[in-house]
Hints:
The protein has helices at residues 60-64, 75-92, 109-115, 130-135, 147-157, 175-185, 199-204, 221-230, 263-273, 279-305, 317-325, 359-364, 377-387, and strands spanning 11-20, 39-46, 52-54, 99-103, 120-124, 140-141, 160-166, 186-197, 217-218, 233-241, 247-254, 310-313, 336-338, 355-357, 368-371, 392-395, 401-402. With 403 residues, it is an alpha/beta fold. The protein has a domain at 308-402: NAD(P)-binding Rossmann-like Domain (Rossmann fold), CATH 3.40.50. Strand 10 (233-241) and strand 11 (247-254) form a beta hairpin.
Amino acid sequence: xxxxxxxxxxxxxxxxLGKHPPPLNxxxxxxxxxxxxxxxxxxxxxxxxxxxxxxxxVDPNTMFKxxxxxxxxxxxxRNHLSEFAQYMVDKFSPTSKDLIIDIASNDGTLLKFFxxxxxxxxxxxxxxxxxxxxxxxxxxxxDFFNESVANNILKNQGQAxxxxxxxxxxxxxxxxxxxxGIKLLLxxxxxxxxxxxxxxxxxxxxxxxTIYHEHLRYYSLHTLLQLFEKYDMxxxxxxxxxxxxxxxxxxxxxxxxxxxxxNIESILNLEKNLNLSSIETYKKFANRVYENKNxxxxxxxxxxxxxxxxxxxSAPARSSTVLNFCNIDSxxxxxxxxxxxxxxxxxxxxxxxxxxxxxxxxxxxxxxxLLLSWHLADSIISKIQNDGYKGKIIxxxxxxxxx
Length: 403
């Protein structure tokens, strides 16, 4: 095992979350009796370039060929993508002659917003969700992005003015191939914009639920600067955004194309003050993770032993980490209420809790509901209370609490 950025083989493990199935490998009722494949979920620190990464990479075909996540199902994320597209159009002024490529384009939600501005768009999506994008009028390459795919796009479509990747830049194992592909496809003055869950938010908010097999790397700005430097590119701007509980948006291009923003120095100073270069920071984080598990499980068992009912609210990929790490199964949660039609009628990975339509939450009025999309607590809590839910809500992270 080596560091994805600097190839250092002297990595330090600081967190072991046990064995987990891929987070979106929901199980059908017919397959419940079969043993579900699970893989180690261990997190390492590179003491050379300071990258935080997983030790094991699951075969991407196991995770992405039959996929259940769609960008458009979340109102909050759909709004985020709409604002992002508008911001990019305003900032870089693409014309109808320009091509915009979205890597890991999912159901094409982002590109649909770009398309409304009159630009030419192309999605690259390896999963079955690519069919939804095509049905929505988004030209999509149904494949994993790499240098070879980039060469084919270059021959058929030409270069791109803007390449985006939202919440998937940490997913791809062959980082060398993706970086070479991006460089190949960008015009001389082109921009590559990535959004990734931000290591600072993970540490500060104890977002260990964002650690799962899809996310191979957990970026700081410091590590991203090293990555782009390696491929003769440079970061010229960056910003913290609220998406997915806290992400970092990074703008990169060929060297010298854009004036560098003061945001870079500000965020680097933040990372320095948080001591992200020290293994001790991550050991403390790990201790807080183990403490959270004990406190959350103790709270849930106490409620259950008093004869009260508990259900889960929503089943995002991140919920799989909490459920499996804390051993929260169907003896604790009666079901998980969800609105995505792709997950309804199935059972959560590993813990095998039934996923039902979220209308059941209002109909049955369970005593407690564990909010598994806790990073969207404000919007979700107000919605379900407006819909008529009268029970108590448990927010699991960063400190378990009852609302």
